[in-house]
Specification:
Layout (H helix, E strand, L loop, with lengths): L3 E5 L4 H12 L3 E6 L9 E4 L5 H15 L4 E4 L5 E2 L7 H28 L3 E6 L12 H21 L4 E6 L4 E2 L2 H4 L1 E2 L5 H15 L2 E2 H13 L6 E2 L3 H12 L2 H11 L5
Parallel strand pairs: 1-2, 1-4, 2-3, 4-6, 5-9, 6-7, 7-11, 8-10
Helix pairs in contact: 1-7, 2-3, 3-4
Length: 261
């Protein structure tokens, strides 16, 4: 029987790239997302991660069909750019529902299945933004930092059940994610400069396939690391962000994102 990998968000971007690699390696790939994955070999379940009832239904049907989930990947995510004094509560609550609450709930539902089957591996897609500040999108940064903390803390709890959990932190990745970001219309010129800078970094960044290869290696490792940063450049940025004084990190962020007085 094929091993089963469940991917939240395999309809596009990094999630789809991961799905293709697992298909090539002989896994049964199951996708949970609002849109179906564009590959007939992938089994699709329509799920809105902000609606826990749809996750419940999908997980139950997958459990009935396969009796197991060997690997779970959570690649669903959203981002936006908005001034703090203009941002709508519904927008940042939605962002946290997708990036954080959906991920936690998915893990909550999958862990019992993995326990029953003697173990499994969970990989969540975080972001370098969890440590590298992005002006006008502190919401995304905070959501990914929350995922980092969640993974590190949860790892100790589930390790005794032979369940591993890891977090992959890509930097800029060239996908349609850049085009789907909600950007507020505002007179603040810094908002436009920061958004354009981020778009450029992403569209000139790593390919989704490169990140997916790192995700795959993490997912099948016997003892995967808790946090994984793909790419040498991103590793250097990660280390710098962890070591630099916060005042200097703030100044660097201003330069990178062209923030002016």
């Amino acid at each position: 029987m094929k091993k089963v990998v469940l991917i939240f968000g395999a309809s596009s971007g990094i999630g789809l790239a991961c799905a293709k690699i697992f298909l090539e390696k002989g896994y049964q790939v199951v996708n949970c997302s609002r849109q179906s994955a564009p590959d007939e070999q992938i089994e699709n379940y329509q799920v809105d991660v902000t609606n826990t009832a749809t996750i419940d239904t999908a997980i139950q049907e997958i459990k009935t069909a396969y009796s197991r989930i060997d690997i779970m990947l959570y690649s669903s995510g959203t981002s936006m750019a908005a001034p703090i004094d203009k941002v709508m509560q519904t927008d940042y609550e939605y962002l946290f529902d997708v990036n954080v609450n959906g991920a936690i709930y998915a893990v909550k539902k999958v862990v019992p299945i993995m326990k029953k089957n003697g173990g499994g591996q969970i990989v969540l897609i975080s972001s370098l933004a969890s440590v590298a500040p992005i002006p006008y999108d502190p919401y995304y940064c905070a959501s990914k930092a929350a995922i980092n903390a969640f993974v590190v803390a949860l790892a100790t709890e589930i390790d005794r059940f032979n369940i591993s959990i890891s977090n992959v932190l890509p930097g800029g990745v060239k996908t349609n994610f850049s085009f789907e970001r909600k950007i507020y219309k505002d007179e603040d010129a810094n908002l436009k400069r920061a958004s354009q800078s981020l778009f450029f970094q992403e569209q000139n960044g790593m390919s989704a396939e490169s990140v997916a290869r790192k995700v795959y290696k993490t997912a099948i490792a016997k003892k995967p690391p808790l946090l994984v940063v793909p790419g040498l450049k991103n590793k250097l940025i990660y280390i710098s962000c962890k070591l630099l004084p916060l005042r200097l990190l703030k100044q660097m962020s201003k330069v990178v994102f062209k923030i002016k007085k």
